[in-house]
Design a protein that fits this description.
450 residues; mainly alpha; Growth Hormone, Chain: A; 18 helices; 0% strand; transmembrane transporter activity; transmembrane; transmembrane helix; membrane
């Protein structure tokens, strides 16, 4: 076991892969830091730019643009390899950081967020494809473990650093301080990008290729509308959600492998499992700080602490699985089971008589479940994908992730609006967490099928 662990670790840091691994870590860390920091700086940003009525749109614009970047990057990577998207994606992200950092109006800020979303979506899919091309199959779990580990530092210090920058310098440095480091990441990738080159596609492509960007835009619009409707519960927003679903479902038929939405065993179920486990984890997590602050009187800083602990559990489990051989399908199932246990356990902190300290071990367990499942889902997806489909299937993973999170977080918001309130959320949090535990158990059963 020791020799296997040593060889797998050294494969990441071998001379011909050292800069690739560092660049993977740096680019994902920067994107994660930006994502973790925005929430802290946003109240100051909207006040400074007089955009209070558009508070949610920096999130929505990024999410919608990410769908487009993800889908187009998948198609480009399958036809010409990951190099074009790995050049254009980080550069768009960098441009978005600069534009957002110098914005004088909310409209300009949103333009920057759109560029960041397209760039981030394009980048992550191309990184998946590059991992498949650069790292041997047995070393891919470790490479995907690096992607998970890249979220640890932003989770720990991102909100705090963003708060300090906003308070003592300017919110603009939340964006501008990252731009030079993105350029460094691109430069570190340059040698391997030259080595990979641009693949010449002589297949002629799909005659209906033009449907893909339309489907991407439709999915982006549908997902953005669902997110908006979830954040503004009312009878009118229910109509918006219905229209969004009418647009989203046909779009997904062109963006996901056949059988994904019904959980067909194999690749479709693997991709669906990403949406299910991400949706359960992030939707339960979204209402943990609300429960701790509204029910138990925690300060905002203390209410957000379990989210950091979850990130630590995620990273630890991800690094553990990266250093040991194992069946990805079994690890995905075990990840679902751990998240289900945590979701059931979180129910005990929802009443005012419940022990709030229980959230600490429970959310460490939930994070560990994600650390087991998420890299394993990526590894299994790549291994089940043909050479010309790795980009499209990696894009499908990201689309499922965003869709599952948006829908289930929205469901939680709808339950709070119907059964409780943000001041007294217990009556909604208990049935919602139990429902999410049921979804996780269903995912464990479905993913176990051969």
């Amino acid at each position: 076991m020791t020799s296997t662990t040593t060889s797998r670790r050294s494969a990441l840091w071998a001379p011909d892969r050292r800069f690739v691994t560092l660049a993977l870590f740096l680019l994902v860390t920067l994107a994660a830091f930006e994502g973790m920091s925005l929430g802290t700086a946003l109240p100051t940003i909207v006040a400074d730019l007089h955009g209070e009525s558009m508070y949610s749109w920096p999130f929505v614009a990024f999410l919608a643009a990410s769908v487009v970047g993800t889908v187009l990057s998948g198609r480009i990577s399958d036809r010409w390899g990951p190099v074009p998207a790995l050049v254009v994606g980080p550069l768009l992200f960098l441009a978005g950081l600069v534009i957002a950092g110098v914005a004088q109006t909310m409209v300009v800020l949103l333009v920057g967020r759109v560029l960041q979303g397209v760039g981030s979506g394009a980048q992550v899919v191309a990184l998946y494809v590059m991992i498949a091309q650069v790292y041997p199959e047995r070393d891919r779990p470790a490479a995907f473990g690096v992607l998970s580990a890249a979220w640890v530092i932003p989770s720990l210090v991102g909100p705090t650093v963003a708060g300090l920058l906003t308070q003592h310098l300017s919110w603009r440095w939340v964006f501008l301080s990252l731009a030079p480091l993105v350029a460094v990441g691109v430069l570190m990738l340059t040698p391997v990008l030259r080595q990979l080159g641009i693949r010449r596609d002589s297949s002629g492509g799909d005659e209906r290729w033009w449907l893909l960007p339309l489907a991407a835009v439709g999915a982006a619009a549908g997902l953005a509308s669902l997110t908006w409707a979830a954040q503004h519960p009312s009878l009118g927003s229910a109509g918006v959600a219905a229209v969004a679903l009418a647009v989203l479902v046909p779009a997904l038929r062109h963006l996901l492998p056949a059988g994904t939405l019904v959980g067909r065993p194999g690749l479709p179920m693997t991709i669906l499992s990403r949406g299910l486990i991400a949706g359960v984890f992030f939707s339960v997590e979204a209402y943990v700080p609300l429960t701790l602050s509204s029910v138990h009187g925690f300060s905002p800083a203390m209410a957000g602490l379990p989210l950091t602990l979850g990130s630590l559990g995620w990273s630890a489990a991800s690094m553990w699985q990266a250093r040991r051989e194992g069946d990805p399908q079994v690890r995905i199932r075990n990840g679902f089971l751990l998240v289900a246990v945590a979701a059931v356990g979180i129910v005990v902190i929802a009443p005012d008589w419940g022990p709030p300290w229980a959230v600490v071990p429970l959310w460490l367990v939930a994070g560990a479940g994600m650390g087991l499942a998420m890299p394993s889902i990526s590894v299994r997806t790549i291994s089940l994908s043909a050479d010309g489909e790795q980009g499209a299937n990696s894009a499908a993973l990201q689309v499922c992730d965003m869709l599952g999170s948006a829908c289930l977080i929205g469901l939680g918001g709808a339950l709070i609006g119907a059964l409780a309130s943000t001041a007294h959320p217990t009556a909604a949090v208990i049935p919602f967490d139990l429902l999410m535990a049921g979804v996780a158990l269903l995912g464990a059963v479905l993913v176990s099928r051969k």
